[in-house]
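Tutorial, part two.
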Amino acid sequence: MLKSVVSVLLAISMFFFAGCYEMVSLSRDQYKKVNRYDQVNVLTDTSGTLTKYKFSRGMCVLQKDTLVGTGTRISDVGEEHNVSVEIPAANISLIEVSKLNLAATMMFIGAAVMISAGAIFLAGAPGASGASGGGGQPNPQ
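Running the prediction step on this input gives:
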């Protein structure tokens, strides 16, 4: 019984790390809302050189026509470097943002828990697969 409970708790705890995120691209007039999102990816084009930046929630903000923040710059080779930047809005090619969709995440976790509980209920408790003793032969009537 203890093994079953521990197994179920471990399986359910996995869902606390799951989440449904929405990813959208912002238009230039939506740049002011950039600090509301969980993750912000910025692609810049400076004289034909493309650079990608990643910012966590609240780590960047639009001040006048400049994006100011502290985050990670990703090089062409995939190396990551921590940076503090001021990027003119004119150099920004794309801002992609993601935010946790709480309703979808809760439905996903609820469905997973219900399916797990249903599977355990249908499987029955360990050792409860029939009457004890009697050798397994039915009694004629």
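The chain has a mean pLDDT of 77. In part three we will examine how such features are distributed along the chain.
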